[in-house]
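Each letter names a residue; the fold follows as tokens. Both lines appear below:
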Amino acid sequence: MRRYPKLNKWINECWLCHCQGYDRFIVENPNNEQTIAARNIKSFFRPLDLDEDGLCEACSRLSKKQSSDDEEYDGDASKF
């Protein structure tokens, strides 16, 4: 990717775990012709969808689980 910095626009990166993958919408968009760059990106990266917070699916699930666990905590540490 250092060699072709313009292709970074097609790469998603989770801000929490820093896993990288291609933006499925841009690379697989039927309006775009299959360029050599798109084919190369698809061969080196997996698709990676990010949520509205910029998290991958795994980090998003962990974040939601953590926030639900925090809401259940009432300040009594003896329960844990």
Notes: Residues 5 and 11 are 10 Å apart (CA to CA). The chain has three helices and two strands. Residues 57-72 form the longest helix (16 residues).
